[in-house]
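Why run this: before we spend reagent on co-expression, it is cheaper to look at a predicted model of the complex and decide which construct boundaries make sense. The entries below are exactly what would go into the expression plan.
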Amino acid sequence: MSAENRRRKAEHIRHILDTEGDSVQQNTRVFNEGRYESTGDLDDYERLKDEARAIKEDAIERLPELIDEVTEAVEANGGTVYLADDAADANRYITEVVDGRTAVKSKSMTSEEIEVNEALEADGADVWETDLAEFVLQIADEAPSHIVAPAIHKSREEIAALFDAVFEPEDPPETAEELTRFAREHLGEKIRDADVGMTGANFVTADTGTLALVTSEGNARKCVQATDTHVAVAGVEKVIPSVEDLQPFVELIGRSGTGQDITSYVSLLTPPTDSPTFGDEALGSGDERDFHLVLIDNGRMKMRDDDQLRETLYCIRCSACANSCANFQHVGGHAFGGETYSGGIATGWEAGVHGEESAAEFNDLCTGCSRCVNQCPVKIDIPWINTVVRDRINRGTDGDLDFLVEGLTPDADPGGIDLQKRLFGNFDTLAKLGSAFAPLSNWVAEAGPARSVLERTLGVDSRRELPRFERESLADWFADRGSRVDPDAARERVTLYPDAYTNYVRTERGKAAVRVLESLGVHVDVPAAGESGRAPLSQGMVATARSNAEAVYEALAPAVAAGRDVVVIEPSDLAMFHREYGRLLPTEEHEALKERSYEVMEYVYGLLENGADLGALPDGDGERIAYHSHCQQRTLDLEPYTTAVLDDAGFDVVTSDVECCGMAGSFGYKSEYYDLSVDVGETLADQFTTDETADRTVVASGTSCLEQLDALLTRRPAHPVRLLDARRDRR
Amino acid sequence: MSVESIATFESSLDEVGVECVRTTADGFESALAPLLDDPAVGAPLPFDGVSLPDAVNTDPTVAELEAAATGVTAAGYGIADYGSVVIQGGAAGEEPVSLYADEHVAVVAADDVLPDMDAAFDRLAADVRDGAGQSIIATGPSATADMGALVKGAHGPMDVTVVLVEDR
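The model came back. Tokens follow.
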């Protein structure tokens, strides 16, 4: 990205933060909390997700066959199925069916994707959006900012002002109730006079030709009932085998989306339906209702053939990945979205239906924090899809400046990758050099001229403090010092993985971890092992990540083979071992390492549970602590170990409840994303500056979290393992 | 039907803001009377010995539907866990009657109260295969949060009452 493009992107994000950020944040956080609460009430949440996943896997596997089956079923019911190759094909067909008549629509992202309104209007038809949010957007001439609640970026005041300006009512509606009544009445007339009702479909069952529509307002029901032609538009991926298969989705979709156990209406329609339709005055017979199911390919069958993008087709468009995403919560879909779709999974949709250029616009906003992973009702690995598409975007760009970095960045990825991404992707090399030349390298890096060059050429924001490299790495320190516990008398023998940050930058937490483990009778070894691959992976450099992973496995393999546990301090690296290595290493190597590797506080917890002496650790003595876990650590459900250990050791702990600190590795260093990173971080900082938390000692598990908190608070944060280190300076 | 399902159904209805009135076939008319605000529209009820009073218009015009204060329909079944009613039917106007009036009164036979979504989908699938053109799983009143706050009563009813006929 050029400096000019970076500047423009930063400006756009700042504009969205200023104009839409508050509304988006308020609404998405309600959805997010609602989802945790509503899914928490489900006894069999995990089983339902597994079922839903299995149904989608099977449906996409058998899609051509199911499309034939649903076609037969709909035709046997008296309807028509049209399989459209692309948007133009779909619009041509729908325009013919509508034939210049007035159409009323319920909300459908797929109809947004093909821009059917524009096609119909160009043909002289009137089209009215009847979903209240879509109606607001239609009269404001704006695009959806959220796939479920499309006008989430607009406040009540803005909607009132809009209605006032457009309709000039005598008694302008102001409250949410008044605005709703006003829109209902206005749209009621449109529905009464319309000839064609258009809907989407959340699911289509192949066995019976049944549409499931998940709604709350009742407008979709009205659009179908009041008119005598029903056109349903759905992507081909919406077809599932049978009516029974709807059950897990009906239980999951509302909970996962807006946090409702179920939405007001789940309509199962097997059209053409026979509800009486609206004549001029009397109700007319619904027996002659015409039904057209338009199934849209528009790139989906290609996605189905693509091993990496296929999972996207399992998506049920619930919006959980958007609502659980810290970046999305702060900017919404007008920054974190492409031509049609928004949020984490949008990268897959946009790359598949509109092309990689559309995905490239916002793909970087997925930091890989993984908070969406456990929220997805069909268990899509959304960060992975973002990584793969980023990798493809990297490979697709021109490599004009490649000669500048080729020698300096010994990565395995081919030319053409953005220089900024290569810089951050090769953190290991940078850290090694930085450490070798410390403190000189730190002075040079922090000097004004160097920062200005870094910002201009690589987009490293000069408002961020750079990591300060230690002259002596953790591995070197340990090699000199050696173990202080006799291996033969040891309770356990473990290998401490020296992740790149702990090894070169935050060596103090590595030393604390060694001393804490030793105080509990553990023999520790710290072998030289390289960067885990997290840094290149986050830049979409999959090939480099894989070669890093292979090198790390080679370094740790002897310990793993000897049956020793591997203790990891940096949660994002442990998450690599547990999650992403499944994609980068042979299955048996991934499983062996996953089986053996533990987060450091989780390991301490296990030692204490298994008889290690709590008395060997310093007494917390009621010290008040504010703890921020790490996004990926929480996804692996490892936060409770840290709080349990600190509680047991006598500390008084409160925790943050934000999804991510906003720093996310390199993200917060990038000049185009600095403002967003700080905006996200402020939410965390606010939680740690309340009356209850302002005087607490701040601890955080991740390097990025520590850097962000260090920048935003006046207290200096540390890793929680340092609280357990007898050498800790308590001043 | 089980006693447990009925109790769960009632408490789930309460959670989604739906009043539940328990009655018997004999007592139906007097139980319904206080729930009817004029003008009332309805679709004929399928339960033995249970019918709508004359005051309920079962053949409304479009204008009468839109002006209706109360709309009475049967519900094919109730789902105890969720406090949902499943509105079925077609030609007799169950869909517009349950959708246009300010308040929807759904009449459910106690025998048709199912414990959970699993049981409901067994029934739904069988009904669809038997030709049921539409089944609406309706839970509480229509709602929207699109205008800056949660509002009950969007395009559909703003109130829902369930009349549970215990001996049907």
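Confidence is low (pLDDT under 50) at residues 398-408 of chain A. Residues 3-300 of chain A form a domain with the Rossmann fold fold (CATH 3.40.50.10420). Bring this page to Monday's planning discussion.
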